[in-house]
Design goal:
- Helix content is about 35%, strand content about 20%.
- By secondary structure, the chain is of the alpha+beta class.
- The protein has a single domain, classed as 4-Layer Sandwich (Phosphatase 2c, domain 1).
- The strands form two sheets. The protein has a five-stranded antiparallel β-sheet with strand order 1-10-9-6-7, with helices on one face. A five-stranded antiparallel β-sheet has the order 2-3-4-5-8.
- α3 packs antiparallel against α4 and α8 packs antiparallel against α9.
- The N and C termini lie far apart (about 60 Å).
């Protein structure tokens, strides 16, 4: 019996390590966009694998854009060809936070990763870019899935995912959709502080998996416990000037129960702003660790306009 428990524990540890390795993006996956420097980190609370997810879309590396453009033009789909052409100067970044931080939540994060990229491929084939329809589909799947709810570490808790997905262009424009996720922060090099962003440029929707869209054809098949949501729309930030920094993160960075505040984060960015995105990211993480003990999975993506 003791040997059996040892073997089971060993298998569980190997599974957790596999999950952790699967959720960490390859170095080459980070989008290469002119004028833009990107670096991200994820630190699971348990030290192995948790519910946070960071994934990237390097459009030129992941898709043969030239072949897709040629096919679209041959079919007379000029608008689609133009969409694909613009992707040469963009990169996609997704940061998600699955409720919970256990190994089973890492499985849900891995499933989100696979669903997202499968839907992204479909979007590229149909539209020549990623649209909000992708997130409508993912939200519906996670809402309907009993399997995903059973994977939640706490079966009595509501299973949901907060998410932000955005595309950064070579001009510093960031267009994104948010589902219950902490809003991005923009640090101005000129003013040496975070800039205030108008609320109408930070429209957010309920986390994934909580509500169906109000006009979904299957809405009547499910109990209206939390009501229905509006269709996703995108936000645009055009605030990035040379040397400015955009931060995407999960709530493990700014935890209401810790002493790490927005003001301290701002000082950390101010002190490291002359460095690369990697330098800034590492400086923030080091400062966060020095401030207080970590109480949740923590993810951070730094985007610097050069």
């Amino acid at each position: 019996m003791e040997q059996l428990e040892t073997n089971i524990n060993k298998e569980l540890q190997m599974t957790a390590q596999y999950l952790a390795q699967s959720l960490i993006p390859d170095p080459g996956a980070v989008p290469r966009v002119n004028n833009i420097d990107i670096h991200g980190m994820t630190i699971p609370l348990n030290g192995v694998a948790g519910g946070d997810l960071v994934t990237y879309v390097d459009f030129q590396d992941r898709y043969d854009l030239e072949a897709r453009i040629a096919r679209a033009l041959a079919r007379g789909e000029e608008a689609k060809a133009q969409m694909l052409q613009r992707l040469k100067r963009k990169g996609g970044i997704m940061v998600a936070d699955v409720s919970g931080h256990e190994f089973t939540d890492a499985i849900r994060a891995l499933l989100l990763h696979q669903v997202f990229h499968a839907c992204a491929l479909y979007e590229m084939d149909q539209n020549g870019n990623i649209t909000t329809r992708l997130f409508e589909q993912v939200n519906t799947r996670f809402f309907k899935s009993r399997t995903l709810r059973r994977l939640a570490a706490d079966l009595d808790s509501t299973s949901f995912i907060t998410l932000i997905y955005g595309e950064i262009s070579h001009t510093g424009r960031f267009r994104f959709v948010s589902a219950g996720h902490p809003p991005p922060l923009v640090f101005s090099r000129a003013y040496n502080r975070f800039v205030e962003i108008s609320p109408n440029r930070l429209v957010s929707y309920p986390p994934l998996g909580l509500q169906l869209t109000e006009d979904h054809p299957d809405a009547k098949l499910f109990k209206r416990v939390l009501g229905y949501k509006k269709k996703y729309t995108t936000n645009d930030l055009n605030l990035m000037g040379q040397g400015d920094v955009l931060l995407l993160y999960t709530d493990g960075l700014i935890d209401t129960f810790s002493s790490y505040t927005i003001e301290r984060l701002e000082r950390s960015v101010a002190l490291s702003k002359d460095g690369s995105a990697k330098d800034i990211c590492e400086a923030i993480i080091a400062d966060r660790k020095a401030a207080s003990e970590q109480s949740d999975d923590l993810s951070l993506v730094v985007i610097k306009y050069r």
